[in-house]
Design a protein that fits this description.
Helix 3 crosses helix 5. A five-stranded mixed sheet has the order 3-4-5-6-7, with helices on one face. A two-stranded antiparallel ribbon has the order 1-2. It is α/β, with parallel strands linked by helices. 41% of the residues lie in helices and 9% in strands. It is globular.
Length: 364
Amino acid sequence: MATQDAPLETKLAEVNLNKDMTQDATAIATPTESSSVAASLREKPTGPLKTPIVDPVESASPPPPAALTADQQAKYDALLETVKAWEEIPSSADKGGPVTDSEIMWLSRECLLRYLRATKWVTADAAKRLLGTLAWRREYGVEELTGDHISPENETGKQFLLGYDIAARPCHYLNPGRQNTEPSPRQVQHLVFMVERVIELMVPGQETLALLINFKASKSRSNTTPSISLGREVLNILQTHYPERLGRALIINVPWVVWGFFKLITPFIDPLTRDKLKFNDDMRQHVPPQQLWKDFQGDLDFEYDHSEYWPALLKLCAERHSEQKERWIEAGKNYGESEVHLKGGNATSIYQSPSHTTKSEEKD
């Protein structure tokens, strides 16, 4: 294991080694509490915190999911049967081919319901969008994005995941004033990579994130506001391929030039997302002060140190992903599996009942 003072390259190599070792989740036991990455990160530091926060405060919990009506359940059942019939994912970028295990795991019960809600419960539209997202994930290379590739983008801490809000949503901080690179495809890949990581850190029962954006001016760069074209590209990706994922967006220190930017992109933001944007609110009403960074009016003494934070985040997310994949395999590698079960919540696999047919049984 890398020591606390090891260089970042050594720590990232260790993360990649651990990731390689966890590819076959059938051969891995869920890490014990005493040896897990999560357990080590729960230890309080003597100085400023420099690593992710593992758990929400005890008073924070996701709201219970709304019960489905009979009509909604029927539409969900129809969508599930549709996706189970897919044998290949079509692609215009030579990325077509059979549906993979990771894609089947991604097609969870909650995922299908998110797409149904996003398409106003029109089953055919939800199926079309799901297939489009699967094709996009392949063509964009979402699962191939690595911590090594993204690392240079985050050296200044312009994005980080830290703490949970009052509804146990993981908090995703954006600090445009810490911009350290020129516009490039990797800047967008950086955001996609971080959204994928924040999803891995969601607690059982929580499907949305809290976005915290601080437009505090940079001391070294005169203009860190993203371009309109970049903003539109990011919005298109998030609204098309991550529907129903934004729970709250808390935005502070908005200068006039950024207000102008928001006015320009507002027509491209769907009304439901627009209603979730909160400007210059009292942040302590949304995030428990003890888990809210001081720069956002909180009590948390956090210092972004890339050599400490980045390897810790990658290890924690790799551990969470490995645990979820192991539960999915043990339950039968099914379409429409419960995300609450996969994330270690108190719900059992929805395929525990003998009346359910598993993916492997269907293929025999």
